[in-house]
Amino acid sequence: MLQEFAAAARQGALVGEVRGQAERFAEREDVLTTTHGEMTTAELVDCERTADNGRGRPRGRGTGVVDASLTERAIAAAERPLTEEQAMTVRATVSNGHGVTVIEALAGTGKTYTAGVLRQVYESAGYEVLGVAPTGRASRELAEQAGVPARTMTGC
């Protein structure tokens, strides 16, 4: 969270200002702490529930698991090689059994490219793919660059 607030400061920001923003954010009523100590929002949780309920499959019970051979074929067929971290993200996402997986990383790390490979894996397994992004810009990038139909979190 600190990195995001610091990165959003156009001209830079003092450490105290960034920490203050993070503390105020964490105190908001719609911010929830997960069992692992991470933070999410009520809006994102509702979006995840909507996505899961719309498919009729509860999270964590084998939803979205794809055969490893399809995964490896998609990784090998990618337009350019994935980094080890990107390949690990693809493998973990298609084998974790969660109905919704949130992928977070710094700008420029290849999230959109990785999303395109994930789309290929899931579509080859017969799934319909829908991306959810925090901003309209990110949603458009998923659609235009990765071929992933996407909405903003408020559009869930």
Can you describe this structure in just a few lines?
This protein has helices spanning 2-8, 15-26, 42-55, 68-77, 84-95, 111-124, 136-146; strands at 31-33, 39-41, 131-133, 150-152. The chain is mainly alpha-helical and 156 residues long.
Describe the structure.
By secondary structure, this protein is mainly alpha-helical. It has a domain of 98 residues: 3-Layer(aba) Sandwich (Rossmann fold). It has seven helices and four strands; from the N terminus they run ααββααααβαβ. A two-stranded antiparallel sheet has the order 1-2. About 4% of the residues have low confidence.
CATH superfamily of the domain at 58-155: P-loop containing nucleotide triphosphate hydrolases
**What is the overall silhouette?**
globular
Whole-angstrom Rg: 17 Å
Number of helices: 7
Order of helix and strand elements from N to C terminus: HHEEHHHHEHE
**Range of strand content:** 5-15%
* The first-level CATH class name of the domain at 58-155: Alpha Beta
For the biggest sheet, the summary is: 2 strands, antiparallel
Mean pLDDT: 83
The total of beta strands comes to 4
Q: Main sheet: which strands, in order across?
A: 1-2
- Bin the helical content: 40-55%
The CATH architecture assignment of the domain at 58-155 turns out to be 3-Layer(aba) Sandwich
Please identify the structural class as seen in this structure: mainly alpha
Would you identify the regions where 5 or more consecutive residues have pLDDT less than 50? 55-60
End-to-end span in angstroms? Answer: 23 Å
